[in-house]
Amino acid sequence: MRAPGLGLVDEPAGTRGRTSIADVVVVKVAGMAAREIPGVHDMGGGLSRTLGAVRDRVPGGRPNVGRGVKAEVGERQTAIDVELVVEYGVPVPDVARDVRENVIGAVERITGLEVVEVNVAVTDVRLPGDEDAYEAAGTRVT
Question: What is the pLDDT of residues 70-118, one digit of tens each?
């Protein structure tokens, strides 16, 4: 029973109020998780990679870990789209599966949101002779 005006509440402190998670939080977590997978060379489409390479070279600039990731976040669920550049010779379906599993695990563990889907689009493949172009542009995932 509550006494009027005394502020006594029957609910535990941890459940009072609500928590909202911004899209950018899910984007960054998903981006980090996708980059951890062997065979992922870079992320994003051509234009975003080019702009990212320029941004990464600016003194004091930070790499954009969310490049190539889009997320729609609701109150309890999220859907994520990821664009990848894979290394030549790696099985694309395996890389996509591993990215999907790692992204879902990380996002659900860190944010508590249910990931309803992770759509993976492979936008390019890095061929063995492409090292110079990628290294010059500074777009290698590390």
Answer: 999 999 999 999 999 999 999 999 999 999 999 999 999 999 999 999 9
What type of residue sits at position 98?
A: D
Report the alpha-carbon distance of residue 59 to residue 36 in Å, rounded: 25
Q: How far is it, in rounded angstroms, from Cα 132 to Cα 50?
A: 15
Do the beta carbons of residue 96 and residue 120 sit within 8 Å? yes
Phi then psi for residue 114, to 5 deg, are -85, 125
CA-closest candidate to residue 96, choices 139, 37, 141: 37
Say if CB 138 and CB 100 are below 8 A apart.
no
- AA identity, residue 24: V
> Among candidates 127, 126, 105, 128, which has minimal Cα distance to 40?
126
| CA distance linking residue 82 with residue 5, whole number of Å | 51
Amino acid present at 7: G
| Dmax (CA) of the chain | 75
